[in-house]
Amino acid sequence: MNKYITELIGTMFLVMGAALAGAIGASLSLMVMIYAGGHISGAHYNPAVTLSVWMRGKIEIKDAVMYWIFQFAGALIAALLIVYVFGIEGGANCVIPDDGGTKAIIAELLGTFALAYVVLNVATAKGTSGNSFYGLAIAGTVLAMAFTLGKFSGGAFNPAVAVGLCIQKAFCWDQIWMYFVGALGGGALAAIIFSLNNPDDK
């Protein structure tokens, strides 16, 4: 249970950082929560990363499902705190324009691919085992992708963050599928590319 609680806490603070302080807040929140919880759960805090790590063979499916449940629970708690405690709700306009769906999906796919690819290489690979830079590398990737691709999709790169921001009304519910398709696709692609690049790292 400690792994699942860690995933809930980390995802909760990640969503709060994203909703209340944008890309920099999300990245810094992610970094400190990775260092806080990495030794317990692996510090995924992202269903797409969990998918990627499962495809890599570093987590069992029963744990992956529980991670997903607790990640979305963390996002829900964060959104409720933001709206009902801090009183902050998003605007009425969707982040993704009506004619920007394809660009948004590609942006989410690329950003999440970069994130999951970095996670697999700095936190699961034999060649970087025991390093101390993994939190900085992962959070730095989120920040870089947010500044590079965020203008096209809002830069969630994480289905749980997207759900949290929909509850908070920063994102629109009718566009939520784009975040799932893009992010999960990016996570799966990262696992495939990692396996091809590291055939001896099983």
How would you explain this protein's 3D organization?
This protein has one domain (2-197): Glycerol uptake facilitator protein. With 202 residues, the protein is mainly α. The chain has 7 helices and no strands.
User: Strand-residue fraction?
Assistant: under 5%
According to CATH, what is the topology?
Answer: Glycerol uptake facilitator protein
Structural class from helices and strands? mainly alpha
Number of helices: 7
Radius of gyration: 16 Å
| N/C terminus separation | 26 Å
State the CATH superfamily name: Glycerol uptake facilitator protein
Q: Tally of extended strands?
A: 0
Number of domains: 1
Order of helices and strands: HHHHHHH
**What is the helix fraction of residues, given as a range?**
over 70%
Average pLDDT value? Answer: 96
Gross CATH architecture: Up-down Bundle
| Residue windows where pLDDT falls under 50 for at least 5 positions | none
Major sheet characteristics: none
Shape: globular
Q: What's the CATH first level?
A: Mainly Alpha
Brief synopsis:
The protein has 202 residues and is mainly α. The protein is built from seven helices and no strands. Helix content is 74%, strand content 0%.
Task: Name a few traits of the molecule.
202 residues; Glycerol uptake facilitator protein; mainly alpha
Helices and strands, with pairings:
Elements: H1 2-41, H2 47-56, H3 61-85, H4 101-123, H5 134-153, H6 159-167, H7 176-197
